[in-house]
Design goal:
The chain is of the alpha/beta class. It has a single domain, classed as Ribonuclease Z/Hydroxyacylglutathione hydrolase-like (Metallo-beta-lactamase, Chain A). Helices cover about 25% and strands about 30% of the residues. The strands form 3 sheets. Strands 1-2-3-4-5-6 form a 6-stranded mixed sheet, with helices on one face. Keywords: Hydrolase, Metal-binding, Zinc. This is Beta-lactamase domain protein. GO terms for molecular function: hydrolase activity; metal ion binding.
Length: about 210
């Protein structure tokens, strides 16, 4: 089961994945509205808190949930410098962010995260941030992509640590997945790999990613 909660003033998508037994869960990118996220997690044993990247609108409630659930936090440590970076003055206050702890586990390409009867594969997709990752369930055909790619767009690269050419290489990884793979984005609606290959202007070449 996949639950997507759109939270906070930036309408960030927090993703809760429940394993096939219906007993264990992971939460990905808990950015805001911690009490609401916690309420959704209560029926399950939360075995991990995961982050696609370190921007505060995606990790703003990690500290709150870690304290409440005593679950380990997984993130690529290349993004550790971002978890206390306000991006602009007052950003953390605007989204109600809690202090984010350092990750307990450093995510790397090919890592497998098991939760109950389900699992996720880590795909490193830097460019939006240096430590950006996606979480791929190959068996069920979905990808939790954070801000690497959006429906018809891509993650911006003008924030600290962003790099457009690195992001382009990460996009090539994503579009190499099967066309029917469902992409759950960090903001906005879901899409599929096939749809983005056909119509995303940053992938088809109609827009220059260096200008983003």
């Amino acid at each position: 089961m996949i639950k997507v909660l759109t939270v906070g003033p930036l309408e960030e998508n927090t993703v809760i994945l429940i394993d096939r037994s219906g007993k264990k869960a992971v939460v990905i990118d808990p950015g805001a509205e911690g009490e609401r996220i916690l309420k959704e997690l209560k029926p399950y044993e939360t075995v991990a808190i995961l982050a696609t990247h370190g921007h505060l609108d995606h990790v703003g409630q990690v500290g709150f949930l870690k304290e409440k659930l005593n679950a380990p936090f997984y993130m690529n440590r290349k993004d550790s410098f971002l978890i206390s970076n306000d991006i602009f003055p007052g950003f953390s206050q605007m989204i109600g962010a809690y202090p984010c702890p350092e990750p307990d586990f450093d995510l790397r390409e090919g890592d497998i995260i098991n939760f109950g009867e389900s699992s996720l594969e880590v795909i490193e997709t830097p460019g939006h941030t240096p430590g950006g990752v996606c979480f791929y369930n190959r068996e069920e055909g979905y990808l939790v992509a954070g801000d690497t790619i959006f429906k018809g767009s891509v993650g911006r690269t003008d924030l600290p640590g962003g790099d457009p050419q690195t992001l382009m290489r990460s996009l090539q990884k994503i579009i190499s997945l099967p066309d029917n793979t469902v992409i759950i984005c960090g903001h906005g609606p879901e899409t599929t790999v096939g749809e983005e290959k056909r119509s995303n202007p940053y992938i088809t070449g109609r827009f220059n990613i260096d200008l983003w």
